UniProtKB/TrEMBL annotation:
Organism for this UniProt entry: Mucilaginibacter yixingensis
Catalytic residues (positions): 181 (proton acceptor)
Keyword NAD: no
Source superkingdom: Bacteria
Name under which the protein is recorded: dTDP-4-amino-4,6-dideoxygalactose transaminase
Length: 389
């Protein structure tokens, strides 16, 4: 079975060593030493001055919206994970969707101004699949109309853009360290800002608004994370360069093998460093995408319709047609990509796709002949590998 993603696991002994320390100290949560150490190491690794480790990437967005005192309308992208929109509605703000650029899959800055009203307070954009938004264009519009900017950088760990960590941009950026992300702490996330006042506010909000033992200076929530989660984050940070390297290799292998395949790839906006977080392919039609997905599933290969459906069709928002996003969302598929995916498995995935496209409609019979002719060869290779391991 080839899943669409697999969580990275560090050496078990590394984690156990940290757990031993937790037992010795008997300090389990509430800004413990491992949380502090993880925050320091992340700042060092990412070359950042400020960050706060929080319990997940969703609450990171909610705290960002709250700390910036946003109300009214927030301009956002319909092509993202559901938390990008639900964080807005959760804070009783209204998401106003702006369609995406069909090449970058990010919010189209050229369409933002037309969506601004007197009630607009912010732009919340996602660096989709780690691909940097047109940050300067978005920031220029925000400056002109006195709007705040939040970047949902959940996919963008390790991305650098124009000499800075991508997390430095916007009034606040957020990330997720969920197990499915390329760098994770089982559950977890972080908020980033360059503004010390906003940082202070978010730090208070993270822990119920406590400003002293019995004093509260903000309305807060519980967005803290535990020593166990921080321990996993510390373990995984040692491997992150290796993970990034492996993903880059696999991403390039996919691109090479799918050269003759009638699909489009996401156009990546020239970051200094990219993280190859996902491998999305955009099919010419939903029909072909579904055929390919089914053909992969016959081989027990699981891809994912990511992101589908458009967030502008959620039942709790004002539903509006977003022609580009709706079209892309119906035709896009993310292929398996994780650091232990083997080249033989990647070969198998690409062959299934190429064959499905070449021979048109998926028929059980032709799939069986394919299995007889081509797959045994690859399967035997996989088996050899399994034996070796
Ligand atoms: C994963 C993800 C989130 C939410 O992060 P969690 O840590 O799972 O809460 C938010 N936005 C995007 C774009 C994501 O992919």
């Amino acid at each position: 079975m080839i899943p669409v993603t697999k969580p990275f696991l560090p050496a078990e002994k590394d984690f156990r060593d940290y757990v031993k320390g937790i037992w010795q100290r008997q300090w389990l949560t509430n800004n413990g030493p491992l949380v502090n150490s993880l925050e320091l190491k992340l700042k060092e690794y990412l070359d950042l001055k400020y960050l706060l480790y929080v319990s997940n990437g969703t609450i990171a967005l909610q705290i960002a919206i709250k700390a910036l005192d946003l109300e009214g309308e927030i301009i956002t992208t319909p092509f993202s994970f559901v938390a990008t929109t639900s964080a807005i509605t959760w804070q009783s703000c209204k998401p106003v969707f702006v369609d995406i650029d069909p090449n970058t899959l990010n919010i189209d800055p050229e369409k933002i101004e037309a969506a601004i009203t007197p009630r607009t307070t912010a732009i919340l954009a996602t660096h989709v699949f780690g691909n940097p938004c047109n940050i300067y264009a978005i920031q220029a519009i925000a400056n002109k109309h006195k709007l705040k900017v939040i970047f949902d950088a959940a996919h963008a760990f390790g991305v650098r853009y124009k000499g800075h960590s991508i997390f430095e941009y916007g009034d606040v950026s957020t990330v997720s360290f969920h197990s499915t992300k390329l760098y994770h702490s089982i559950e977890g996330g972080a908020v980033f800002t360059r503004n010390p006042d906003v940082l202070r506010k978010m730090a208070l909000m993270r822990s119920f608004g406590y400003s002293g033992i019995d004093t509260f200076s903000e309305q807060g929530i519980n967005a803290k994370n535990s020593e166990f989660h921080a321990a996993m984050g510390l373990c995984n940070l040692k491997y992150v360069d290796k993970i990034l390297q492996r993903r880059k290799y696999l991403y390039q292998q996919y691109k090479l093998r799918l050269k003759g395949f009638n699909v489009e790839f996401q156009h990546i906006e020239n970051p200094d460093d990219y993280n190859y977080a996902y491998f999305p392919v955009i099919f010419p039609s939903e029909e072909l995408m579904l055929e390919c997905k089914a053909a992969l599933e016959l081989e027990q290969i699981y891809s994912r319709r990511y992101f589908y459906p458009s967030l502008s069709s959620l039942p709790y928002v004002e539903q509006v047609p977003m022609p580009i996003c709706d079209s892309i969302a119906s035709r896009i598929l993310c292929l398996p990509l994780y650091h232990t995916l083997t080249t033989a498995e990647l070969d198998l995935i690409c062959r299934v796709l190429l064959r499905t496209q070449r021979f048109g409609k998926l028929k059980a019979a032709s799939t069986n002949s394919f299995n007889r002719e081509i797959v045994p060869h690859i399967k035997s290779k996989l088996n050899q590998k399994a034996v070796r391991n």
